[in-house]
Amino acid sequence: MPELPEVEVLVRHLAPALANRKIEGIEIKRSRIIAPTSVVEFSRRLRGAAFTQLARRGKYLLFEMKQPDGKTFPLVGHLGMTGRMYVSPRNAPLPKHAAAVFNLGAENFVFEDTRYFGRLTLDTSAIDALGPEPLGDGFTIEYFSQALQRSTQPIKVKLLDQQLVAGIGNIYASEALFRAGISPRLAARRLKLPQIERLWQALRETLSSAIKRGSTIRVDYSGAVLRDGLFYFGTAAEVEKFYEKRLQVYDRAGKPCVRCGSAVKRIVQGARSTFYCPKCQCG
DNA sequence: CACCATGTTCCTTG
DNA sequence: CCAAGGAACATGGT
């Protein structure tokens, strides 16, 4: 379920549910998701520890753990393509693709991941390589402009570079370029300053409005309820209402552009789909 | 059967 | 050495 907004919404949901909960036991069902940490080391460090703080960095979740002696250490999570994390009653059945289960006493903290691309590990090295937070103070127009000048890659591909800016994924890269009216094929270094400013603004608006929307829907990550096809859960009516106006171009190939009515196109860049309106995004 | 999928890493090629 | 492109990872949906 991953891109910055969905991770942010998840973090806000999980933080109060996990705060001060102690880990009584751990079950690792797929060791690849804790790599490069070993199962033995993972269990040794975490059994008896408690969750304290929870934060987000790019698409990563940063759990602060506290040992009985008061020392703290970080636990790093990533949802990959299909990961979900939630707290559910201990007697609830575990999902088919449960990757890790933490016994919190009356409840379990479950990390479920169909494709097992996600991570829940003690290795924090991935965090160090991340660029600035797009919604934070470090992501200035000056920084963005300088960084883009050094790249010949198409702007859509460059936006997925987590060292440029952290948290943009395949969906919101297309969405932000649509909002800014910029062609995804334009080489990064070819963007003019007005375009860079528009894109900078579009990125921040796209992400923050997605966070806002995600925060308004009733989210039940644990329930065996409907999902919206990607990230969220709720009743049929809730999901339909939520889904309706969520994305403006992504996955809309052949459908009319919401702004001008011409057909949305799908192209492949860097082996991944890009969606755009050839008429609104000709710059 | 074919192709597609929210992400990251590793390998090859130029 | 660097950038770019692609495959791999693993499972499911259409």
Describe it:
- The chain is α+β, with helices and mostly antiparallel strands and 283 residues long.
- It contains eight helices and twelve strands.
- The protein has helices spanning 4-18, 39-46, 125-128, 141-149, 155-159, 170-180, 193-216, 236-244, and strands spanning 25-28, 50-57, 60-66, 72-78, 83-89, 98-103, 107-113, 119-121, 226-227, 233-234, 265-269, 272-276.
- Strands 1-6-7-5 form a four-stranded antiparallel β-sheet, covered by helices on one side.
- Helix 1 (4-18) packs parallel to helix 7 (193-216) and helix 6 crosses helix 7 (193-216).
- The longest helix has 24 residues, at 193-216.
- The chain is elongated and about 60 Å long.
- The chain binds a DNA duplex (14 and 14 nucleotides) through residues 1-3, 6, 32, 59, 78-82, 97, 113-119, 126, 151-153, 157, 160, 162, 169-172, 230-231, 250, 270-273.
Structure summary:
About 30% of the residues lie in helices and about 20% in strands. The protein has helices at about 5-20, 40-45, 125-130, 140-150, 155-160, 170-180, 195-215, 235-245; strands spanning about 25-30, 50-55, 60-65, 70-80, 85-90, 100-105, 105-115, 120, 225, 235, 265-270, 270-275.
What's the layout of helices and strands?
Blueprint (H helix, E strand, L loop, with lengths): L3 H15 L6 E4 L10 H8 L3 E8 L2 E7 L5 E7 L4 E7 L8 E6 L3 E7 L5 E3 L3 H4 L12 H9 L5 H5 L10 H11 L12 H24 L9 E2 L5 E2 L1 H9 L20 E5 L2 E5 L7
Antiparallel strand pairs: 1-6, 2-3, 3-4, 4-8, 5-7, 6-7, 9-10, 11-12
Helix pairs in contact: 1-7, 6-7
The structure holds a DNA duplex (14 and 14 nucleotides).
